[in-house]
C-alpha cells in the first residue's frame, strides 16, 4: 500500500469520526439545561486540552528556539480573529436562516445572544479543523508512519465530541435539521481538505505550520474562556459543569497517552 493510499484511509477515518459525532448530536437533539451544561463542560475540557497539547505545544516544538515568535504571533492572531468575529456575529448569524425563530422563555435579545455564542462555537471548530488536517497531511510526508497514525487517531477521537458540539447547540436554538446536516458536513470537509493540502504542499506548509497551528489553538482558547465556560455557568449547574470540564481534560490526556 502506497503512502498516498494510507493517507486516504486516514482521511476517511477523520471524516467518519466527525460524522459519527454529528450523528449522535442529531439523534440526541434537545437535552435538559443541566445535561447540556455538563456536556458542554466536558467538551470544553477536551477542547482546552486539545488546544494546548495538540496545537499550541506542537507549534512550539516545531518552531524551535529560533522561531519562538511564530507560536506567539499565531496564538495572538487566533484570539484577535475570534474577538473580531465576536463583534460581527450579529451579522453572521443571519446565515443560519433562523432570524425569526422565537423561544418563549427568552427575550429576542437573549435569543440573539445564544445564536451568536453557537456561531462562535462552530466558527472556532471550523477554524481549527483546517490546520489540524494540515498537520496530519504534513506528517504523512515524513518517514515515520507510526507518528502519522498517532496524530490521525488522536484527531479522529477528538472529532467525535467536536461533531456533537457543532450539532447539538444548533438544533437547540432552532436551526433546521437539514441545515445542521449541511453545516456538519462542511466542517468535516474542511479537515479533509486540510489533510490533502498538507500532504501535497509538504515542506512549504511545514514552514507556516507552527503559526497556523498556534492560531487554531488561540482561537479555541478564546471561545472556551469567553463563551463555553460562561455558558455552562449561567444556569445554576456550574459545579457539575466544572467536574465535567475536569473529566474532559483527563479524558483527552489519556487519549493522548494511549495513542
Helix content: over 70%
SS elements, strand count: 0
Helix count equals: 8
Radius of gyration: 18 Å
Query: Main beta sheet: strand number and arrangement?
Result: none
Helix/strand order: HHHHHHHH
Count of domain modules: 1
Tell me about this structure.
The protein has one domain (33-258). Helix 1 runs antiparallel to helix 6 (177-201) and helix 3 packs across helix 7. It contains 8 helices and no strands. It has 259 residues and is an all-alpha fold. It is 84% helix and 0% strand. Residues 91-109 have low confidence and may be disordered.
How are the elements arranged and paired?
Blueprint: H1 3-28, H2 33-63, H3 69-92, H4 108-139, H5 145-172, H6 177-201, H7 203-232, H8 238-258
Features:
259 residues
Sum this structure up briefly.
The protein is 84% helix and 0% strand.
Amino acid at each position: 500500500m502506497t503512502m498516498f493510499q494510507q493517507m486516504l484511509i486516514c482521511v476517511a477515518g477523520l471524516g467518519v469520526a466527525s460524522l459519527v459525532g454529528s450523528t449522535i448530536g442529531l439523534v440526541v437533539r434537545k437535552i435538559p439545561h443541566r445535561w447540556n451544561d455538563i456536556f458542554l463542560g466536558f467538551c470544553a475540557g477536551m477542547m482546552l486540552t486539545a488546544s494546548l497539547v495538540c496545537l499550541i505545544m506542537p507549534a512550539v516544538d516545531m518552531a524551535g528556539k529560533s522561531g519562538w515568535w511564530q507560536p506567539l504571533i499565531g496564538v495572538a492572531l487566533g484570539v484577535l480573529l475570534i474577538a473580531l468575529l465576536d463583534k460581527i456575529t450579529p451579522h453572521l448569524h443571519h446565515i443560519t436562516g433562523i432570524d425569526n425563530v422565537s423561544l418563549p422563555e427568552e427575550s429576542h435579545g437573549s435569543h440573539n445572544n445564544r445564536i451568536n455564542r453557537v456561531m462562535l462555537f462552530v466558527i472556532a471548530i471550523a477554524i481549527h479543523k483546517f490546520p489540524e488536517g494540515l498537520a496530519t497531511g504534513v506528517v504523512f510526508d515524513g518517514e515515520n508512519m507510526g507518528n502519522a497514525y498517532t496524530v490521525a487517531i488522536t484527531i479522529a477521537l477528538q472529532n467525535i465530541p467536536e461533531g456533537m458540539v457543532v450539532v447539538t447547540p444548533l438544533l437547540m436554538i432552532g436551526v433546521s435539521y437539514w441545515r445542521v446536516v449541511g453545516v456538519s458536513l462542511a466542517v468535516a470537509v474542511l479537515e479533509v481538505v486540510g489533510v490533502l493540502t498538507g500532504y501535497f504542499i509538504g515542506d512549504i506548509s511545514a514552514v507556516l505550520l507552527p503559526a497556523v497551528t498556534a492560531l487554531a489553538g488561540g482561537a479555541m482558547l478564546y471561545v472556551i474562556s469567553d463563551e463555553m465556560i460562561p455558558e455552562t455557568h449561567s444556569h445554576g449547574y456550574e459545579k457539575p459543569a466544572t467536574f465535567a470540564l475536569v473529566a474532559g481534560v483527563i479524558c483527552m490526556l489519556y487519549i493522548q497517552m494511549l495513542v
